[in-house]
Specification:
141 residues, alpha+beta, 2 helices, 10 strands
Length: 141
């Protein structure tokens, strides 16, 4: 088992012992299990998926939408440091969809590089929120 800690600017979002965690990085999604090699890498905006036990079915895994940040893996401990993280039960698909449309419009209207970068970060964030809301919707179906 591995000890997972998800830390945001507002405090600890999640702290528990889990079987597996999947993390978004610039190089792609990585799965972390017990005895994973030590690693420090960037966290990309995306979805963290947590499997509590080895026999937890896919549809009962927990999902969190995160911003970019840092991931530290050492001695069966995973610490994810991000500005914000939201659990799938905290996100409304309708609200996330509307926010994604607004973010895409902001990106289209951007007049300079700074505005474009901010809008793209918002698009990435809202796309992650929509993804976890849709995953939760599928669980209930």
């Amino acid at each position: 088992m591995i000890h997972l800690e998800l830390v945001t600017l507002s405090g600890i979002k999640l702290r528990e012992t889990v079987y597996e965690v999947k993390l978004p990085t610039p190089q792609g999604l990585i799965a972390v299990y017990e005895n994973h090699a030590d690693l420090v890498t960037l966290a990309s905006p995306g979805v963290i998926t947590v499997r509590a036990k080895s026999n937890t079915p896919d549809d009962l895994q927990e999902n969190y939408a995160i911003d970019s940040g840092v991931i530290e893996i050492e001695n069966n401990k995973v610490r994810v440091l991000v500005d914000e993280a939201e659990k799938d039960t905290e996100v409304s698909a309708k609200e996330a969809e509307e926010a994604l449309k607004k973010a895409k419009q902001m990106r289209a209207d951007a007049k300079d590089r700074t505005s474009l970068d901010k809008a793209q970060a918002l698009v990435d964030r809202e796309a992650s929120r929509l993804k976890i809301a849709e995953l939760r919707r599928r669980k209930r179906s």
